[in-house]
């Protein structure tokens, strides 16, 4: 005879208890609470198996995610994975409509039906399956199997289990949201690898583990060689595909328990642990691992289809314990990687003591530069720019750092590092602010109202999305005539995203800003881009001026630049003029704008203004 449930009160008390447990479960307890609920329901029904299936987003497949089995019943969860939903037949259509599948007697099914064959092969006599839905969207199925006897379910019991199914739906959705949040917080959206935040935590844990085990661990800084060229030539979608493939390959090669994360753009971090208690053996283990990584990247067919040669530059630092800050370990590995980049790429370098000294200096410099930005410790010096027969028409603004303990520092002391660290962005804005302040003062005075001021712009600064609005804001704030402000760009900047460079230059030109192409002749000179750029001036690099009197090739280059400027209607200015002979030669070639130590070195504001007054008054006296 079919079995029914005489104790309705006990049943609904069970349902109420399960609902409370679901409501109180924390995120990490959800899987445990679901398994406990399946066990409670299975025992109450004297069932042989209770289970939960979750569907894929497209509803094409379903997988058994949670299962309880009575004693002696073989678990099925491992084999019931990625099932095609077609296998569920008419049941699937019922679930999509929000209806349960209630089968009190499997033998009542036609013997040739798919459902009969599926259930009888497992010895199932009765079956209850309820859909788990979020609003109208089917997300899973919760079921109970009975093999030892037949089972009937009253409408109240089905309704109670539907309430349980609703509670399961709630906690599943909460779990999915928490996992998605965790994924966004701790994992890279493109590659699925650990992000910087998770890597920092893993490195800290590895430091503690290395203390306990006395085994070395290593942090590897991995950079894809020539990735920027790939991005520029093949597009960002192809670049993203390469990043995804590399991430997958790195993950597959790593030993179990090691971690790979994406740090930034084409830069990855690899944390490999439990290497060896002997440093030499640990170095060998890292070297062997890197060889595997290099080999799999170089030989991967999909990557070779995108470009034939794919290589990695890798820097490594070993650690034992937590004597170094995590950020310092990353810096060490980065600096070692940079040694590979400076050579030929496609190799491995280990961090050493000399690099440690450099790393310490860099950390101190980074801290001091941030203080300098916050404390506005920067000031401008001015190198006069003249036009034949020697009238001062303006100046090039050159940055100096008034260090609180080291005194006045020139740009060679800090600008390269500012570029590498990204601090050039706020520093560059300070320079523009100081320049606009000074132009506003000059423009309010008759003797200096027509002075021009040239400001060097870094590639990083120019690439900022808010660069044009920032210039507009400063011009408005200080009420500056924009035609007096000249922005100096380098040729190498023009290679990166040329269309965007032109667009920004045109927008700024419409405001009245003028542009000078600095160090002309040393970079990627092209008549094509020169004709498209809204330039005002070409600057002849000082390297050509240095050898102007002794090298016929340099003379030819300078002559060509001057003729090119004249042809395009551009002003040509020579920098680095240090003698009367050089000036005479430039004038002979047709260059009438110049600057250099022959006239004046970069001067603080007061000295520049005295030079201006004395020089121009002497010229016109």
Automatic annotation (TrEMBL):
Task: Report the SMART domains cross-referenced here.
Answer: EAL, GAF, GGDEF
EAL domain span: 362-616
Q: Taxonomically, which superkingdom? A: Bacteria
Could you tell me which InterPro entries the record lists for this protein?
Cyclic-di-GMP_PDE-like (IPR050706), EAL_dom (IPR001633), EAL_sf (IPR035919), GAF (IPR003018), GAF-like_dom_sf (IPR029016), GGDEF_dom (IPR000160), Nucleotide_cyclase (IPR029787), Rev_trsase/Diguanyl_cyclase (IPR043128)
Domain GGDEF span(s) in chain numbering: 215-353
List, alphabetically, the Pfam families matched: EAL, GAF, GGDEF
**Which protein are we looking at?**
Diguanylate cyclase
From which source organism is this entry? Alishewanella longhuensis
